[in-house]
Every structure is written in C-alpha cells, then in structure tokens.
Amino acid sequence: MQSLILFCIMTFVEYYRAVWLMSVEVNSLPIIKSAIERAKTNVKANERNSAQLSSMRTAVKKFEKAVTKHDDNAAELYKAASSAVDRAASKGLIKTNKASRDKSRMAARLAKANA
Length: 115
Known about the structure:
The chain has a single domain, classed as CATH 1.20.58.110. The chain has 4 helices and no strands. It has helices at 2-23, 33-68, 74-90, 96-114. The longest helix is centred in the middle third of the chain and has 36 residues, at 33-68. It is rod-shaped.
C-alpha cells in the first residue's frame, strides 16, 4: 500500500515536471509543486513586464522622433510617453528617479523644440 501511494505521488510530480518542461525550456526543473507553480508565474510575469517596458520605450521613441522632425503632435506624444513612463514606474519596472529624469529630459526637449 505504501509503495502504491509513493508511486502515485511520484507520478503526480513527474506529471507536473512534464507539463513544466513542455511549457518552458529551463536548465534545471523544480521538483516541489509550489516551486513549479512559482516558476510558471515568473515566466508569465517576465513576459508581461517585457511587453510593458517595450511599449514604454516605443512611446518615448515616438516622442523623440516627433521632436526631431518638429511635428505638431509632439505635445500629445509627450503626454503619452510621460504617462507610459509613470505607469512603468508605478509597476516597479523602472525606478522612480529614472522616471523623473526621463520625463524631465523629454519636457526640456519639448520646450526647446517649441522655442
């Protein structure tokens, strides 16, 4: 009976390891169920954070391009980029000092372009 329980537990663990292996390629697989679940959560969070950082960088680059070309919609793009930077800072993707520094530099470039 004890061996049957042990077999069921091992089968359960191997199942979760197999599911994990199919979903993500890693060098070492966790054995404990909570560690497997945490690793899956980390992968999802990494994808989400990367996407949000990418959208922030895209907004900033659009603003920089508009300022360089002296476009009329640079002020609107500044608002969008500033909002994206603030969102990234509030989610902890970038530090608040970096967010302030980036926004300050963008505001200075916008003021210089409008002058």
